[in-house]
Every structure is written in structure tokens, then in C-alpha cells.
Specification:
Structural class: alpha/beta
Number of strands: 25
Helix content: 40-55%
Strand order of the largest sheet: 10-9-8-19-16-13-15-14
Strand content: 5-15%
Largest sheet: 8 strands, mixed
Oligomer: single chain
Distance between the termini: 63 Å
Number of domains: 7
Radius of gyration: 33 Å
């Protein structure tokens, strides 16, 4: 038989096996048994007919023959990789119910197959599991039998290779090679022994080549040197050859499979792909360090399918925009990261803008990008909130290379600081499908409600219209910039719309199929099969030959549990639980049982459902703990849980709040009514796996990256009642949009955390069944319609009139008038403007005439010009973001108090230095600003929030808030203490979001009335919006809050500490940031008294700030010399003693402290082997990086001041640090 015939026969055999219904059914049975075993180990009595060993052999065959055909470049490559993926999954499923010895081998096979098939994230997960179960990473193999030691070294290096742990690969291989060199002597002495086998020589040689190959691989991952990579493959081939000669078929097979991985690795390698598709980038030392750092710090050495598609479509080199339409957890954030870095390195002054719709997402993205880009010397800042702004935020803005912010902030910046955008190279728009938020279609409106009524309730056209106007204006303002538009949940027709709107060349959206996301998703349905037993049935898995879907029988049971209470007679109380007709109780029990396998998210359509589920979770856990049936000790009650979220909940909500009670069991809640500090702490601790279960509404559905194993769907509909004019209640309902549902489901099975996530519907009623059928199909997503297009439709259908829209369009049209972007009196000109927006693209596709919308805009513009004839005043009104009538109301209030305000201004400007007037606003000025804004439509409290503060004296609450009164005091003294949730919602909606916007408008109009620029107002006035937002009446505390300090207590103390050190300090933003960045750890502990959680947050913020440009300059090798003082000498007596011996010109030793709990970039300074202090923090960030790169770094003392006891001076030593 010739080779081609043999390969053809092999290919045919694979296809016959794949199409064999018995084989496929056996695989489905394996999966079903794996699921049942995972949830009910040893408890299921289901009879399966597959042969365990036979399935294993078939999977070995799929792997080996597919590798053979890949090597020979025979048959369809994608088909062969799909075969290997099938083997990977089957090995993984078999491992779930195998014995321990078989389990390790099966998991190894699975990890290898995932690597070959291109699912690196899954391979990482499986390898981590192997390491946890079968290897002790803390212990390097100890001396013993040669074969035993070699095997242990091989296993360690092999697992590190699969996990891409570059550092560990280097360490283990280095140790292994040293031991092998020693073994050579031992073996050479045994040659003349009668029992000596030549196979021992082959085996030792094989191990030597294996470890040298692994060492070369790690070097390639750090350098991108292709010669090293080729040498790596050659050594691995020699290793395989020698293992075969030694008769060790197991190691020979594994090494041959590693060779297959390396053959495909070259197609996926970060270095090789950047070199092929953007080779000029590798000339930049920033990119070389970035790729090295990805490998060394994050174990990223190859791209996923999604990222390869982006790079191969010239994401890194093209000036055109891109639309990224990929499922959640497919690698979209990394694509954005690559695009940002390509833009930043394209020009020295280039900046990037990242627009995210929600605070939680802004916080997450800023944290991620800062962690990556700060190591390169780039500054990443965030701005959250609405239209408020101050001069310090302007400083942060101008310093940032990357700004992560909300659409409202970008709109405000474009209105007030248009020149800022001239240097923007790339604009990322994340969760872009939210562009249709705010305007309901006729189908979306609750029955009996009109669009005009909905607009009146929300007072604006919504965030979608704002984003569409904003992007259209940005396109006109900076046509040289490009957009990266990202969405996980929109149909293909919409991706084509966005390509036509944003891209200058014809192209397709960057798209991958949901099946290509790294982790699998299974869709299950829970229902009670009897009065006492409920099961999960999996809806999207193939049916078994019996016709059944895979299922888990008797997953939860209704039975008697101890409640933890006593009966009136003193006996232990028991209760039947859960009620099979109660969806919240059922969902709670499901969540607890599923938490054993990983983090669980319980989704509820509305807040009252979320609270109900949370309360039932607490009861369920209490009952299970009392009955000694908790599935995991992680859910056991703790009286004082060591959680930041618990600390924040006690402060903001009190001990009696359901969330505070739930946190005793490590169960969290995430929904709209929570204060931001509580919500942020919950996000971080759930992300860190410190909370096991999280109950949430759709506040977590929009892009936030959380490691969820299972999403339980409690409800998909929202119901509420409203009273008619005659007092009769009317019940309204609406269903969750399917794309929002799938966005939430995307949380299940995060890449790199899980190989599989599951979504479980809870079915109690027949209506639940109908909804499940409707939502389980991901192919029926709603179209993403432009908000302006929906307004156009409403005009065409006469559901709203042009005059109705005047008060809602005018704030957007004011911006167009001020920017002179379009002649709003010319309807044809307006129509042309609309053609450049999404509404134009969609109107053309759907053949809807744009004239009604253009006419409405012209009518509204004419009304504005009539109302505000003064062009200068119109520009001021435009800068506020408020509607014309609101600006006029503010102007009227200013006129009423104008003389008092002028008198206050004169007092401020005539006082040289009085702390209270220089750094704090007067109660009078705060009250005047509040009066001007309090009744504006845009400032109204959401109709779903009730006010329970001082009747007729809301200002007393505002004043106490701004003056820093503790939350508990405000809640207990100025609010109904039983309405703590309404209090936090009131603060979030009216105080920290809306009023700062209104006060910013007040100041803008006041400056105009005073004949001044906004920046010429007293600095303390300029900070009033931020003071209201952050709840502090101190400029420096505002600055601390703007840097990211979320605790008011911490911000107030930081502000006071800075003022104490600089009592006559001019307002120097740069000095404050430098001071904060360089705060010594010991100083923070001694001068600032806060909780451990607040300290941790403070260190995290401080450590993430990049100050100055020296870091970038060093990386680009523009400077090799840095000067720094030795800090923190005086905090330890022994340091003072040693420092006194230092003289000018002495050599000082610098050492990394990677395990420093407060600062991982700390660099200690020693003299004669004894520590005297630390390199100043802003310099240490640079030095630590250079030391990690292996560069030669030397330091000498250049100036020494000895201790003078009478002057009580600290020792002072300055250093010159040279980088070679």
C-alpha cells in the first residue's frame, strides 16, 4: 500500500467513526454520566451501555490519526482539529468518573488535545486541575531513584509547558538539567555492571533533550527569536527518538504530541503573528517588552482564534475602523488592548479613548488596562458620572494616555474641551449594542402607555441617542481617528449596519461563531418531577438513543430540615423545604447545590425577586447548616466575615439589611439599589472567588467579566403597577430582551476559569416553559435599532409629534449649534448629517424617509434660536448638557442671588489665606447652587425611588453629606432608618449623579453672567460639583477621590494629611499626585487611620498610578540614568544606624521585593548587606522592571546628610542609578 492510499484509508476510517451512530451515542452517554457524576458522585442509578476502555481507545485513535494527517497536510485541517477537540472533551468527561490513576492520564490527554485543537484556555484549566490533584508545585523533586526523579521532573515541566508558565518552565528545566548532568556520572560508572542497560543511556539522553527543548521554548516566548524556536523543535524530535530507542512508549507518545502542538504553535504564536502581520511593531522596544511581559506575567504566548482573525485582518496596522462581533469570553478585551497599544506606539502624542456604558465596566476595564499598560509607562485614567467636572480631573485627563469613561463624560468633554480630541487615535466603544437604549418601540411599550409618557418619566431621550449623536459628532470632529466597535450580542444584519456606518472600506465584521468560544455552554432546565424530587434536563446537548436529553435525576429534594431554632417545647424545630411551588426557594436550593462545582450567579428580572431569592438563600443555608448538609464549608455562617463587602454593607446599609445578613454566608447581591462602594466591593470579591453565590439583576449583564460556573435563571419578566389619574392600579409587564439575556448567560463558563459553563432555567409553571422555549435559541436576537431611528419611526407612525420632541432634542441640538457641525436651519443639511449617523444607514436599509426627523430637528433648532438669541449664551447652555428651559431656570436663580454671589466672590478674592474660604465652600454658596438646580427636570429623583429625608429641608441633608458626615449618621438622623435602601438609591441617583451635573451647569452660566471664563472662577467653586459627587468639602479630598479612593473617610484623611504637610501649598496638581504616589507604607499606617480594607484599596490605587514619563523613556532606552532619594530610612532604627555609615560615592545595593504585601514593585536599598530604606516609589516602578528584565543596575550615593539630633532631621541620602 502506498502512502497516499494509506492516508486516504486513514481519513476514511476517521469519517466512518465520526458518522457511526453507535459511537456518537456512546459519546453522548459518556457526557451524561460525567454530568451526573459531577453533581451526584456515586449516587446515580442510571444504567449506561458504553464500554469505558473502548471509548478511551477510540479517542486515542481520533487523536493519533488526526495528528498523522495534520503532519502530512492531508484532509481538511479544521475537520481534523475538530476531531481532536472531540477527543479532548471525551477524555475530560471520562476523567470525571475514572479511578485516580486513570484520571491523571485522561486529564493529560485532554489538556494535550485542547492545546492542539486551539482551545488553549481549556488546556490551561485542565492543566491547573492536574497540578492541583497530582503535583505539589511547592516541592521540586527531591533526590531519589533516577527514574523516579526524571519522571517527576518531566511531569513538572510538561504541566508548566501546557500552562505556559514560562518562569516555572525555566526553573524546573534548569534544575532537571543540573540533575541529569549528575546522573551521567552515575550511569557511566554503571556501564561495566552486568545488569546495565543501554536503554538507560537513551532515556537519560531523551530527558536531557526534552528539558533543553522546554528551556528553549521558554526563551523563545520571552524573546521571539525564531532560531531558538527551531532549535527547540529539533531537540524535542531528538528527545522523542531517544525515548523510542529506550522503549519508553508513554514518554515517546507524549513528546510526539508536544511536537504536534509546536507545529501548530507557530501559527498562533504572539511573536510570529506580530512579526508576520505587523513586523514594524517589533522594532519598538515597547512592543518587545509587552510581548515578553505577556509571556512572563500572564502566560500568554499565543493568540486565540478571535485574536488571530483580528490581527490577520490588519487590526494593528490599518487606519480603518473595525466592528468586533464575538460572543462573551471570546477574547474581545484583548483585541481592544492590542488596538490601543498599536495606536499609542504609532505616535508619541497619540491618546486613546475607551467608552463603556456602565460604571462597573469602566472600573473593570480601567483596572485591567492600567495593570497591563502601566508596566510600559502609560497612564490609564477613568472618569465616571455625568457632566460634572473640575480642574483636577482636567489635569488627570491631559496626563492620561488612555481614558476609560462613560458616554456622558465624553459628551461633556466634547462640549467643553473639544481640542482634547485632536490627539485621539483610537476610540473603543464597548457594549455597543446599548446604542438603542432609551427609546421603546411600539412592541416594547407596556400596554396602554405612550412613548411621550415614557419620555416624561425618564426626562431624556436616553443613553442610546446620546451615544449615537456623540459618535457621529466624533466622526466629524476627528475623521482621522478610528473606532473599534464591540458587541457580543447583536444579529448579523446589525454588524453590517455598523460596518457601513463606521468603516471607510468594505469589510466584514470580525466575527466568530459561539461554538468557537473557548469554554462550552450547556443550557439546562430544572423542574420538579414529583412532590419531592427535581431534576435538571440539558436542552442543547444531543439526545441519547433512548430519545432522552442528558439529565441529572433527583438533583434536589424536598424534605425535612432542621431550622436551627427550637420549638416551644424545647425540641429542635424541623421544616419541609423547599416549597416546590415557590420559585425563589427552589432557585435558592439549586444555587447552594450547584455552588459545590463553582461560583453561581442567580439572575432575577427585578429587584424584589432578587431580594426574595437572597432571603431564601439565607434560610436555605441556615437549614442545611443546622442539618449538617452543607455542600461546602465555604458557605458556613461566619459572625465577622473578613470581607470588604461586609465592611461596606455595615456602613451603608446596616446589620439588618438582607445583603449584610447574606454576607455572613459569603452570598452576595448586585442590583440597582446598592451604593457604589458596596457594589464595587462585591464585584471584586466575587471575581476573587471570595463569594460563592451572587444574586443579581441585569446590573451584571453588561460586559462585566466575572468567573461564573453556573447562571440560574429565576425570572425573565418584570411586573409592576402604576396608578391611573383616578387612582386605579394598572399592572404592567415586560420581558427581558433576548440579547440582554444572552449577555448575562455569557458570564457562565469564563475562559481560563472553566472549560464549561451552564445556564439553568427554573421551571415551575407552564408559562415558565413557554419562556424557556422562547429564550433558549440564541439565534433569535432582537435587532439593534438606532434610538434616532426609533424616533423616526414614531414620527412616521404619528405616535409622537415634532413639538413633543423639542424639550428632548434641544440639549443635543445645542451641541450641534455650538460646534457649527451642521446648519440646523437647513433641512437638507440636517438630512445629510443624519446620513453620517446610524439612523441614516438603517433608514436607507429599511427604506424609511428621513424627512420627518430632519424636520423635527429643524423645528427644535428654530425654537432654540428664538429662545436664546445670544450666541455666547447658547454656547454656554450647550456646554451644560441641559435642556434650554433648565438653563433658563438656572439663569433666573442666578439673577435672584446675583449680588450676594458677587459679594461672596469679593470676600474670597480679598482673603490672602483663610483655610475655610480657600479650600472649603461656604454653606451659603452650596445652598444657592442647590436652589438653582433642585427642581430641574433632569435633576428629578427617579419615580421608582421614594424620598424619606427631612420634609421641606433637603438642603440640610445635602450640607451634611458635603461636609463629610458619616453614612450611618446621615441614614439614622436625616432619613427614615427603616428605608436604608431608598437612601442609598437617593444618594446614587440624585446626589452623586444628577446634582453635580446641575451644579456644573450653574457654575458655567454663573461664569458667563460674571463675565468670566469658567476656569477664572474661584478654584473652590470649580470643585463644588465634585464635592457634591464625592461627599467631601475639601479640594484635596476631592483630588484623592478623583484618583480612585472610594472611601470618604480615606479621602478626607488623605486630604488633611496633604494639607498638614503643605499648609501654604499652591494648588499644584502634579505635586499632589507625586506626593500620593510616593507615600511610604509606614507613613500611611502611622498617619492615616482606616480599616484594613481601606488600606488595601488605598495601596492598590497608589500602586497603579504612573507618574511622569521616565518609565517610557527608559523602556525606549532614551535615558539610562535615574536619580532618587532613599526613602523610609527613619522608620526603623537599624536603618538609621547603617545609613549613617554611607558616604558620597559609596555603592548601594538594590534588590527586588516581589512578595512585598503592600507594593510588589518595591526596591529595597542596602549598604554592606544591610537595608537602609527603599527607592522612591515612582522610580522603583522603573527600576523593578529593569531588574526583572535582567539588566545591570547600579546605584551610588551622590548626596548624604548626617543626622542632626538638635535639628531633629531625618537622614537624607540621594542616589544616582545607572541602567546598562
Amino acid at each position: 500500500m502506498d502512502k497516499q492510499t494509506f492516508l486516504k484509508n486513514t481519513s476514511n476510517s476517521l469519517r466512518e467513526l465520526n458518522s457511526d451512530p453507535i459511537f456518537r451515542n456512546n459519546l453522548y452517554q459518556v457526557r451524561t454520566k460525567a454530568i451526573q457524576h459531577e453533581f451526584l458522585p456515586g449516587q446515580s442509578d442510571t444504567q449506561f451501555t458504553f464500554d469505558f476502555k473502548r471509548i478511551w481507545q477510540y479517542c486515542d485513535y481520533l487523536l493519533s490519526e488526526s495528528i498523522l494527517l495534520l503532519k502530512e497536510n492531508f484532509d481538511d485541517k479544521n475537520y481534523l482539529l475538530e476531531n481532536i477537540k472531540t477527543a479532548a472533551q471525551s477524555f475530560e468527561f471520562l476523567a470525571k468518573f475514572a479511578n485516580r490513576e486513570e484520571r491523571e492520564t485522561l486529564l493529560i490527554n485532554s489538556a494535550i488535545c485542547y492545546q492542539i485543537s486551539g482551545y488553549q484556555a481549556n488546556s490551561f484549566c485542565i492543566s491547573r486541575l492536574i497540578e492541583a490533584e497530582f503535583l505539589n508545585q511547592a516541592n521540586i523533586p527531591q533526590p531519589g531513584e533516577i527514574d523516579s526523579e526524571l519522571t517527576r521532573f518531566f511531569r513538572q515541566a510538561f504541566i508548566n509547558f501546557l500552562r505556559r508558565e514560562v518562569r516555572r518552565m525555566q526553573e524546573v528545566s534548569s534544575l532537571a538539567i543540573d540533575r541529569i548532568n549528575g546522573f551521567q556520572t552515575t550511569i557511566s560508572q554503571q556501564i561495566k555492571h552486568p545488569d546495565f542497560s543501554i536503554n538507560d543511556v537513551f532515556a537519560l539522553t531523551a530527558h536531557a533533550f526534552f528539558h533543553r527543548s522546554i528551556s528553549d521554548f521558554s526563551q523563545f516566548c520571552l524573546s521571539g527569536n525564531l532560531e531558538i524556536f527551531e532549535e527547540c523543535k529539533r531537540k524535542l524530535q531528538k528527545s522523542q527518538c531517544n525515548f523510542s530507542k529506550a522503549g519508553d512508549s508513554t514518554f515517546a507518545v507524549i513528546v510526539s504530541e508536544l511536537l504536534a502542538i509546536l507545529d501548530l504553535f507557530s501559527e498562533r504564536s504572539t511573536w510570529i503573528n506580530i512579526n508576520e502581520y505587523a513586523s514594524n511593531l517589533l522594532n519598538d522596544p515597547i512592543w518587545r517588552f509587552y510581548l515578553r511581559n505577556l509571556a512572563q506575567e500572564k502566560s500568554i504566548v499565543e493568540f486565540w482564534v478571535s485574536q488571530l482573525k483580528a490581527i490577520q485582518n490588519h487590526l494593528l496596522t490599518s487606519n480603518d475602523s473595525f466592528v468586533v462581533q464575538m460572543p462573551t469570553s471570546a477574547g474581545k478585551t484583548f483585541i481592544a488592548e492590542l488596538a490601543i497599544l498599536a495606536s499609542l506606539t504609532a505616535g508619541a502624542d497619540t491618546r486613546c479613548l475607551y467608552i463603556a456604558p456602565y460604571r462597573a465596566l469602566v472600573n473593570e476595564v480601567q483596572s485591567h488596562l492600567s495593570n497591563v499598560l502601566s508596566k510600559l509607562g502609560y497612564r490609564v485614567s477613568k472618569l465616571v458620572g455625568g457632566f460634572e467636572f473640575d480642574t483636577f480631573q482636567n489635569f488627570l485627563l491631559t496626563q492620561a494616555h488612555v481614558l476609560v469613561t462613560t458616554p456622558e463624560k465624553v459628551d461633556m468633554l466634547l462640549r467643553t474641551k473639544p481640542d482634547y480630541f485632536n490627539e485621539i487615535g483610537t476610540i473603543i466603544v464597548d457594549e455597543g449594542h446599548m446604542i438603542d437604549e432609551g427609546i421603546s418601540t411600539l412592541e416594547d411599550l407596556p400596554e396602554g402607555k405612550t412613548l411621550l409618557e415614557e419620555l416624561h418619566e425618564q426626562e431624556t431621550l436616553g443613553r442610546g441617542v446620546l451615544l449615537e449623536f456623540l459618535m457621529t459628532r466624533l466622526k466629524a470632529k476627528i475623521p482621522q481617528s478610528r473606532f473599534i466597535f464591540i458587541s457580543a450580542v447583536m444579529p448579523e444584519v446589525n454588524s453590517d449596519d455598523f460596518v457601513r456606518w463606521l468603516c471607510s472600506s468594505q469589510q466584514d465584521a470580525l466575527h466568530i461563531d459561539p461554538s468557537e468560544r473557548p469554554s462550552r455552554q450547556v443550557i439546562g432546565k430544572f423542574e420538579w418531577r414529583s412532590e419531592n424530587n427535581g431534576e435538571i434536563q440539558y436542552l442543547n446537548l444531543p439526545q441519547l438513543s433512548t430519545g432522552r436529553q442528558p439529565w441529572v435525576p433527583s438533583f434536589i429534594q424536598r424534605k425535612q430540615y432542621y431550622t436551627g431554632e427550637l420549638t416551644p417545647t424545647g425540641r429542635r424545630e424541623r421544616k419541609s423545604w423547599p416549597d416546590i411551588n415557590n420559585k425563589s426557594q427552589t432557585s435558592a436550593m439549586l444555587a447552594v447545590r450547584l455552588a459545590k462545582t463553582g461560583p453561581v450567579l442567580v439572575f432575577c428580572a427585578q429587584t424584589r425577586d432578587a431580594r426574595d431569592v437572597l432571603n431564601n438563600l439565607v434560610k436555605t443555608l441556615k437549614y442545611l447548616e443546622a442539618s449538617e448538609e452543607l455542600p461546602t464549608d465555604d458557605l458556613r455562617y461566619e459572625a465577622e466575615p473578613n470581607l470588604a463587602s461586609y465592611h461596606e454593607a455595615i456602613e451603608w446599609l446596616g446589620e439588618g439589611h438582607p445583603l449584610t445578613q447574606a454576607l455572613h454566608y459569603r452570598v452576595g447581591l448586585h442590583y440597582g439599589p446598592l451604593p457604589d462602594p458596596v457594589r464595587q466591593a462585591i464585584e471584586e470579591e466575587f471575581r476573587d472567588n471570595r463569594l460563592r453565590i451572587l444574586v443579581s439583576t441585569n446590573t451584571l449583564g453588561q460586559g462585566v467579566n466575572l468567573p461564573v460556573k453556573t447562571v440560574i435563571i429565576h425570572s425573565l419578566e418584570r411586573r409592576w403597577s402604576e396608578s391611573t389619574n383616578d387612582g386605579e392600579p394598572v399592572i404592567y409587564s415586560n420581558s427581558l430582551r433576548k440579547r440582554d439575556f444572552w449577555n448575562i448567560c455569557g458570564r457562565a463558563g469564563r475562559a481560563g476559569k472553566e472549560t464549561e459553563g451552564q445556564v439553568v432555567f427554573v421551571k415551575i409553571t407552564s408559562h415558565d416553559e413557554e419562556l424557556i422555549r422562547e429564550y433558549q435559541n440564541q439565534g433569535n436576537l432582537e435587532e439593534v435599532d438606532s434610538g434616532l431611528f426609533k424616533i423616526l419611526q414614531a414620527l412616521v407612525e404619528r405616535r409622537i409629534s415634532q413639538n413633543d420632541l423639542i424639550g428632548y432634542l434641544d440639549s443635543h441640538l445645542l451641541a450641534l449649534l455650538a460646534e457649527e457641525a451642521v446648519d440646523t436651519q437647513d433641512e437638507a443639511n440636517i438630512s445629510s448629517f443624519l446620513d453620517t449617523s446610524l439612523v441614516g444607514v438603517q433608514a436607507n436599509r429599511k427604506q424609511v424617509e428621513k424627512t420627518p426627523l430632519a424636520s423635527a430637528m429643524r423645528t427644535a433648532s428654530a425654537w432654540i434660536l428664538d429662545q436664546v438669541e445670544d450666541e455666547g449664551l447658547r454656547k454656554v447652555f450647550a456646554a451644560t448638557g441641559l435642556r434650554v428651559s433648565s438653563c433658563q431656570a438656572i439663569e433666573a436663580n442666578i439673577n435672584q442671588y446675583f449680588e450676594e454671589i458677587r459679594s461672596e466672590l469679593e470676600n474670597i478674592e480679598n482673603v490672602e489665606y483663610v483655610e475655610n474660604t480657600r479650600f472649603r465652600n461656604s454653606d451659603f454658596f452650596i445652598q444657592v447652587a442647590f436652589i438653582a438646580c433642585q427642581s430641574l427636570p433632569e435633576m428629578r429623583l427617579l419615580h421608582t425611588i421614594d424620598y424619606h429625608g427631612p420634609e421641606g429641608d433637603e438642603f440640610s441633608l445635602i450640607r451634611s453629606w458635603v461636609n463629610g458626615a458619616p453614612i450611618r449618621e446621615l441614614r439614622n438622623n436625616l432619613w427614615d432608618p427603616d428605608k436604608e435602601e431608598d437612601f442609598s438609591r437617593y444618594l446614587a441617583d440624585r446626589i452623586t449623579y444628577k446634582l453635580p451635573w446641575g451644579i456644573n451647569g450653574f457654575l458655567s452660566i454663573l461664569a458667563f453672567k460674571l463675565g468670566r471664563e469658567y476656569t477664572d472662577l474661584p478654584v473652590i467653586w470649580q470643585h463644588l460639583p465634585s464635592m457634591v459627587k464625592f461627599g467631601v468639602n475639601s479640594i484635596f479630598s476631592c483630588w484623592a477621590s478623583s484618583l480612585g479612593i472610594t472611601s470618604r473617610n480615606s479621602a478626607l484623611q488623605i486630604g488633611q494629611a496633604y494639607l498638614s504637610e503643605n499648609p501654604f501649598q499652591t494648588l499644584d496638581y502634579s505635586d499632589f499626585v507625586r506626593w500620593f504616589v510616593n507615600l511610604p507604607n509606614d507613613y500611611i499606617f502611622s498617619e492615616i487611620s482606616v480599616s484594613n480594607f481601606e488600606y488595601s484599596s488605598m495601596f492598590k490605587i497608589r500602586n497603579g498610578i504612573v507618574f511622569g514619563n521616565e518609565s517610557l523613556q527608559c523602556l525606549r532606552e532614551e535615558i539610562q540614568e535615574i536619580e532618587s532619594p532613599v526613602r523610609e530610612i527613619s522608620y526603623v532604627d537599624s536603618r538609621v544606624t547603617v545609613a549613617a555609615k554611607v558616604r558620597e560615592g559609596d555603592v548601594l545595593e538594590l534588590n527586588l521585593e516581589p512578595d512585598n504585601p503592600y507594593d510588589p514593585t518595591a526596591v529595597s536599598v542596602s549598604f554592606d548587606g544591610e537595608q537602609i530604606g527603599y527607592v522612591q516609589r515612582d522610580k522603583a516602578i522603573i527600576i523593578s522592571r529593569e531588574l526583572q528584565l535582567g539588566k545591570q543596575v547600579t546605584a551610588r550615593a551622590t548626596r548624604v546628610r548626617f543626622i542632626d539630633d538638635q535639628a531633629n532631621q531625618d537622614p537624607l541620602i540621594d542616589m544616582q542609578i545607572m541602567i546598562e
